[in-house]
Design brief:
CATH architecture: 3-Layer(aba) Sandwich
Shape: globular
Order of helices and strands: HHHHEHEHEHEHEHEEH
Number of helices: 10
CATH topology: Rossmann fold
CATH superfamily: Vaccinia Virus protein VP39
Distance between the termini: 50 Å
Helix content: 25-40%
Largest sheet: 7 strands, mixed
Strand order of the largest sheet: 3-2-1-4-5-7-6
Number of domains: 1
Structural class: alpha/beta
Radius of gyration: 17 Å
């Protein structure tokens, strides 16, 4: 895990030596299960370290208060929307064990993997929810309950806002991992973000050492309650993203 350790040090991420065996086992399980299920196209040992593990941990750079909370070992409620093979939620959980993590994934086979890997890694307070984000966002057990909501490469920002903002508590954050060219997408999403009770707080550029893929973190702040009619039925946000009239 040398590349992961080096990347974390270069970025100022709170990765410690005792975390490395856990990441090593995560990698082994990912490769093993990937032979049965299509979890990821990236299985090279060094590439997984930087493009999955280190990249996931960059979410912690979204706000100084988040990084400080990790370093203090503060409690937090985290949700990861459309987590797939557990990115970015599980790497964040490994370095922030005090966080209560909910992994939201619509594909049942991926949920089976997430449950197994959480057990194998000895991670506690991890809940796997096999459902669409639109369904979870209307569930009183989850709606407006989370301090930080994470998402990586799930959908365009207007759609992602409808998936994620209903889950965030007031003054909570949504952290969306996007590619380099994100400015126009963020502008197009501003109306949707406002309707759903949020605002765009910042767009942070991050370059993960060992990759040639610059990353943007789009950070939304939840400023008011999401209107009860959102999120809309499953599939509607992606077919009809909220746009200014």
């Amino acid at each position: 895990m040398d590349k992961l350790l080096r990347a974390a040090r270069d970025l100022g991420l709170p990765l410690r030596s005792e975390h490395l065996p856990v990441f090593q086992r995560y990698y082994e399980l990912l490769v093993e299960w990937n032979q049965r299920f299509n979890l990821t196209a990236i299985t090279d040992y060094e590439q997984v370290q930087v493009r999955h593990f280190a990249d996931s941990l960059t979410c912690l750079l979204a706000a100084p208060a988040v990084l400080e909370a990790v370093r203090r070992g503060a409690a937090c409620r985290l949700a990861d929307v459309g987590t797939g093979a557990g990115f970015p939620g599980l790497p964040v959980k490994i370095v922030w064990p005090q966080a209560r993590l909910t992994l939201i994934e619509a594909v049942g086979k991926k949920c089976t993997f997430l449950e197994e890997v959480s057990r194998e890694l000895g991670l506690t307070n991890v809940t796997v929810v096999n459902a669409r984000a639109e369904e979870v966002g209307r569930d009183p057990l989850h709606r407006e309950s989370y301090d930080v909501v994470l998402a990586r490469a799930v959908a365009e920002m207007a759609v992602l806002a409808e998936y994620c903002l209903p889950l965030a508590r007031r003054q909570g954050l949504v952290v969306a991992q996007k590619g380099e060219e994100v400015e126009e997408e963020v502008v197009r999403a501003e109306h949707a973000v406002a309707v759903l009770g949020g605002r765009v707080e910042r767009v942070l550029r991050v370059e993960v050492p060992g990759t040639a893929l610059p990353r943007s973190l789009v950070v939304l702040r939840k400023t008011s309650l999401t209107p009860p009619e959102y999120p809309r039925r499953p599939g509607v946000p992606s077919r009809r993203p909220l746009r200014a009239v």
